Amino acid sequence: MKYTVDKKEQYVIFTPMEEKLDSALSPILKSELLTVNAEGYENLVIDMSHVKYADSSGLSALLVGNREFSRNGGIFIIASPQEHVMKLIRISMLDKVLKIVDSIEEAAEAIFIHVIEGREQEEED
Fold first, then answer.
1. Residue 113: HSE in the Cβ half-sphere, 13 Å Cα cutoff
2. Which pLDDT value is given to residue 94?
């Protein structure tokens, strides 16, 4: 699986450079997402702009990423999904579960807000 990883201060942008996210690639994606999480990054943006097709195993990989990054108070954001992928997410009703934005810039803003809200929550506790 070809991909890029861009590590920022508060988050990582993971970009699959594949047109299909299917049963052949989803185990690799799960593994890579778990590796980034294990490295201590709490927040991840997966840039789906190159992915034209996903199947149920691809969605499963995204759900694993969402679960792992959310587990310790982080956030998992899907940015720039193409039409077919977004349609599958909606049909599966995962648009209610996953945080989806139109661009990397929107994802960065969402992470910034998430981090600030997390700090405010810590101060209240």
1. 7
2. 96
Letter for the amino acid at 115?
Answer: V
For the chain, list residues with pLDDT below 70.
none
Helix 26-38 vs helix 56-71: crossing angle, to nearest 10 = 10
Q: What does the pLDDT read at residue 72?
A: 86
The 3-state secondary structure of the chain, one letter per residue: CCEEEEECCCCEEEEECCCEECCCCHHHHHHHHHHHHHCCCCCEEEECCCCCEECHHHHHHHHHHHHHHHHCCCCEEEECCCHHHHHHHHHCCHHHCCEEECCHHHHHHHHHHHHHHHHHHHHHC
End-to-end CA distance of the chain: 42
CB atoms within 10 A of CB 114: 19
Rounded to two decimals, the pTM is: 0.94
